[in-house]
Give the backbone structure.
Amino acid sequence: MKNFTDKTRRNLLKATAAVSVAAAGGLQVKNTHAAQQKQAPDCAQNHSQHGLGAVPQRKDGTLKVSGHAKYAAEYQVDNLLYGVVVQSTISSGRMTGMDTQAARNAEGVVAVYSHLNSLKINKPKAIAEGGAAQSTYTPIQNDRIIHNGQNIALVVAHTFEQATYAASLIRVEYAETPALIFPEDNGATPQDQSSLTITLGDAKQAMETAEVRISQKYATPREYNQPMEPHACIAHWQDDRLTVWEPSQWVSGARKEIADWMGIESQNVEIISPYVGGGFGSKASPATHVALACAASRELKRPVKVCLTRPQTFTGFGGRASTHQSLEMGATREGKILAIIHDGYNETSLDDVFAEGTNHVTARMYSIENITSHHRVVPINTVTPGWMRAPGENPSAFSLEVAMDEMAYELNMDPLTLRLKNWAAHDYQMKKPWSSRQLKEAYQKGAEAFGWSKRSMAPRSMRQGRELIGWGMASGTYPVSRQPAEAELVLQSNGQLTVKSAGADIGTGTYTILAQTAADVLKIPQDRISVALGDTRLPLAGVAGGSQLAGNLTAAVFKTAVALRERLFTLATETQGSPLHGTPRDKLVITDNAVIMSMRPNRKVTLEQLLQLVGLPALNITANTFEKDVSAEERKKLISTLSTITQPEDVSAHSWSALFVEVAVDEDFGTVRVKRLVGAFDSGRLYNPTLARSQWIGGMVMGMSQALLEEGQIDPRNGRVINNNLADYRIAVNADVPEITTIDVGQPDYKATVMGGKAVGELGIVGMAAAISNAVFHATGKRIRDLPITMDKLI
Ligand code: MCN
Ligand code: MOS
């Protein structure tokens, strides 16, 4: 092929894109914005190409694609040592011996730490107790083994290769005891999570009166977050202060957990994490290899880097717990759902409770008066499971939304019609009005874009050659949460603005939307704004988890930017010698690096002039969204716990989605190909429509992956994860992903959040697996209720 100029390349790309759109069934809608701006408060005004709602380039885009964004393990620290983790090979019992002699003698080895040394690591406070630890397992403190792949030793050497080789020389003797490998094993004891019990009306009695009933079991396997950047950290002590380069969704939490482990004050720990190569929940709090790195570095008085290998990431921390559910649904012949009885459980570790609440959406989606639901956890010999994109909502929507499809077939009613028949005009569970719910619009716009009305109801009624075609749908939801935050803005006299926050950008777009928020208020173009994130030395922020950070940080930056603008107006009108001295401040605006009078633009003072007049090199403003009387000390505490996360009080605030899928199933081989995905979403106001779409499609792809591919296979003999690598643990790749259409049906929702946006990051995955399972049923007539939907289940 000849050299392409950039222009020909662009044209070619355009042409290819057009062809793939046409191939996907001639879909025209790619990212429509049905939302109309309503009468809105100050924070929604002033849309420009730089402000909120615009789609400027990603702030971190160039740095990332050019390799200049530095990830934790890439920092160059002098005198660095390398630690390699050793993991257990049994699930349950005690270590009766560990031979570390050969490892110690191996070339380059500096130290071997295990339960045989007395390297003290303290038990961290769990999230449920107001701490920041997802797992309270504290490595190398004793000889007890509670799961296969447990971190039991750390070998430290001059190079990674030396440490890896030496680690392979360690021999462990075990006294094995019978393990609970699966939650169904004899001896596994379910524990009720009473806080998750739902009792609405009288489900048992209502079920008896139902003319049509379905009752089925649903299951999801162990799933793993598997971000591109594996878990890797560098711990570095300088006297009694500890710096940790650690990829983190929550630097204040990481700081707290590490301080707990080391038995020191939080203020002596700094976490540096400006870029995170994906986390999907798994980087919410540091895993135990970080404790090992920190303890070893303290002992050796040298920085220590510990990178988990890809296989070690399967047991070095937990992914999504396997879940099991039974769901019974009763309805009238006309399709009014009368009752649901829904019970579920998930596996957890022996030491910690992690609840993957299988009934998070059960009572939220529809107008069902009678619901009984319980959730239990079953402790077994596994690592403590952790957050994975939409924990709870995800498996919950899988069972409910497949059950809705099953009911639709029992009633011979279109699945979308059944959902509309059971429309919830308010939140039946919380007994509160919705803050906003554009779900009908999502159903309608999604169905229209997909061509849902052309669907024939009968399974196996659509085909294309050897392939059976199936159309399925489902809906999803995710709640809106809030936590206060701080922000700092620094305006230089040359008009350069810096926005600072400790909050994370884990690939979501935080850098970009915070620049947009400041630009909105201060009318400063993007290229003059820089954003600093992900560092405990920056202003306080909570977790990038529960899809709330965007709302929390835009609110803090907005408030700070308004304070900065007010300060500029005060200086302009009150500083002797200012050309605007004495002018009424309500006539002032900022534009082009200057404060001007809106009606008489020639009356102005440039920022440079103004700062010179007051004798300042820069203006520096910090503001926060905490309650007024909360002290600085208290604010630090509030941000290093999740117990301060709240939901709006008077309303029930959620994001909503309607998902439509086309699959093609090869009748002979049972292979499923997703042909098209259409998602219509209500996430309220979008701070950046391109980034929001990027999040939605990321969630949809992850849901597709969950539906068809992902499954941790556990060896029943010893609890080992058999497919603990990216060749065997399959994840959807580009070639699996079809054309995806997203439709924005959101309206700014100022009851949900200050800035009007609702949750985005996890919404796309919720309901996706159900939509695909429903499409597979439509194609094949086979109802698959246990994920993933693999060929063996279809032929
Ligand atoms: N956004 C928007 N308008 C809104 C809300 C959000 O435009 N009304 C866009 C913004 O670009 C924002 C992003 O969506 O940066 C995500 O915002 P939000 O929904 O508040 O989610 P968080 O910032 O709290 O991010 C965490 C969320 C979670 S909990 C998981 S899990 C997840 C997810 O984000 N992990 C991710 N998306 C991910 N995306 C990437 N690339 N990598 C991960 O690890
Ligand atoms: Mo997301 S699973 O809440 O980090």
